[in-house]
Specification:
six-stranded mixed beta sheet; 13 strands; globular; binds zinc ion
Length: about 400
């Protein structure tokens, strides 16, 4: 089992460092914290420091020290799929899809749940908690169950039925909440200090956040350490976006890749606080949001993580874009039909945003572009297609098959 090279926590605002404790913000300035590693040892070891498979292959650049705390349901190693048919349709020279729907609970959340629940064990907690639109709730509950921890999951009342079923099956304590995520998360954040549960939310926990960084390391390995020119990542509060950027930045620092990809932040038009601030070149302001089919992107107040996303965009010349619900649903169908990939609306939003940015000539179509699709479509709730059924005898069956496929042979 490989050793974690994590050394400290470091404030992203004032640079103060702290020991590897359960700490959610800087003691000096309340800034967000990020993990630091022994860069010299990693540079010396090179990429061969990674051994084994799955998410814990990347244990040297993750903050869970004791192998006994590295809880797993078989996450990681999601496919990176070349999509030539869809790429040609969008006019992109090379289009790659990192399909996170292949994870044990069907979403990218399993990357962060593995390290969040691992950290809960590391710091001696017996319960976890999360406020969720559905995906994080199922994932944190599943990993908590796997680790033998209680899980108190607050789930949005309009969460899809498949996600609700999944949470009800895996969580020890499931509570549905009314109203919007932003209001409840503000109240819930205040309870974290009482230490009755380990914070598995997306807003502050550096240990949880860190698991998603493995996505970048996988993409680099899957492309022979020549990562794509552009990566499109969804941004609700910004966890996936920041983590992917961090991962590529670390590899550049270690000399394992020549340069990190240009990052594109994708939001739903109905929850577009980051896009607005970026476009209008002003500080982030919360927006009042309504329902969006991209449930996992329904955050009107991305808070300090949103400011971190904005900082990354501004410092690196990144791009932010948005898509309407109708565009997201149309893109979901297009992806399924053109490449056979069935992703949920939250997951496919980043692809819908890419389509819009290409149409607006805001991105270079000669680039290699990788889109992160964060969830399976199998947890989507929608009206079923027609259930009108047909009875057959041999002659009518033959007639139908010839009518449908007669010209195809
Ligand atoms: Zn600080």
């Amino acid at each position: 089992m490989s050793r974690s090279h994590a050394t400290a926590l470091r404030c992203i605002d004032c640079g103060a460092t702290a020991a590897l404790d359960y700490r959610l913000e800087c003691a000096a300035c309340r800034g967000l914290l990020e993990l630091q590693y022994d860069w010299d040892a990693l540079t010396h070891a090179g990429p061969s420091v990674f051994t084994g498979s799955g998410l814990w292959r990347y244990a040297p650049v993750l903050p869970i020290a004791d192998p006994a705390h590295r809880v797993s349901l078989g996450e990681g190693q999601s496919p990176l799929l070349d999509c030539p048919t869809l790429g040609a349709r969008l006019g992109v020279r090379r289009l790659l899809v990192k399909f996170e729907g292949s994870h044990p609970t069907g979403t990218i959340k399993d990357r962060s749940s593995a390290t969040a629940v691992g950290a809960a064990l590391q710091f001696g907690f017996r319960a976890t908690s999360v406020v969720s639109s559905g995906n994080a709730g199922s994932s944190i509950a599943a990993y908590s169950a796997r680790a033998g921890l209680r899980s108190l999951v607050f789930a949005y009342e309009r969460t899809s039925a498949p996600k609700l079923l999944h949470m009800a099956a895996t969580a020890t304590d499931l509570v549905l909440y009314q109203g919007v995520y932003d209001d409840l998360i503000t109240l819930w954040d205040r309870l974290v200090d009482e230490r009755l549960f380990f914070d598995c939310g997306a807003t502050r926990n550096a240990y949880k956040h860190e698991g998603k960084k493995t996505l970048a390391y996988e993409v680099a390995e899957q492309t022979g350490w020549q990562p794509p020119d552009i990566v499109v990542a969804p941004a609700a509060v910004g966890e996936t976006f920041i983590a992917a950027h961090r991962g590529f930045g670390e590899m550049e620092r270690l000399g394992w890749i020549a340069r990190p990809p240009l990052m594109v932040a994708a939001q739903a038009a109905r929850a577009n606080a980051i896009v607005r601030a970026w476009r209008e070149k002003r500080p982030l302001e919360p927006v009042k949001i309504g329902y969006t089919v991209a449930e996992g992107l329904a955050a009107g107040n991305p808070g300090r993580k949103g400011e971190w996303v904005l900082r990354i965009l501004n410092e690196t010349g990144g791009v932010a874009g948005e898509a309407e619900d109708e565009e997201i649903l149309e893109t979901q169908r297009l992806l399924a039909r053109s490449e056979g990939i069935w992703a949920g609306p939250t997951g496919v939003a980043s692809l819908a945003v890419l389509r819009r940015l290409l149409a607006a000539k805001a991105l270079d179509p000669d680039a290699t572009i990788c889109v992160i699709l964060t969830e399976t479509g199998l947890k989507t709730e929608a009206s079923a297609p027609s259930r009108q059924a047909v009875a057959f005898d041999e002659a009518s069956l033959r007639a139908l098959v010839h009518a449908r496929l007669g010209g195809a042979a």
